[in-house]
Design brief:
about 130 residues; alpha/beta; four-stranded mixed beta sheet; 2 helices; 8 strands; globular
Amino acid sequence: MAKIVHMMIRVLDEARSVKFYEACFGLEIAERKEWPDFSLTYMRNLETGFEVELTVNKGRTEPYNLGDGYGHIAFVTGELEAVHKRIADAGYQPKDIKTMNFEGKPFGTFFFVEDPDGYKIEVLQRGGRFQ
């Protein structure tokens, strides 16, 4: 079977994106590679080996068109309210915490925040199917 290892997003400003993922999710740079036309920065935390790959295409100045195909990446935490506060205190703008129900029972409690390039990120309370 195949093992999921990373997701890639294109970003305009590597330092700004690294700062966001460090401050909001505790990700750290695991590795960085530089080519003449682009760079790849892999970020992860101790919770999992799954990485977020930040791709910077050198010379690009216009924001990427995210289109209507991208959904979101999700992080899970046992301390949803504390993470929400930490992200807000870091100067980012998380949306309100919400609970989604299915067949009358709680399915998930979560909030969304956008990274500096507009990618949506869901932060879920650990529990149920979200471990």
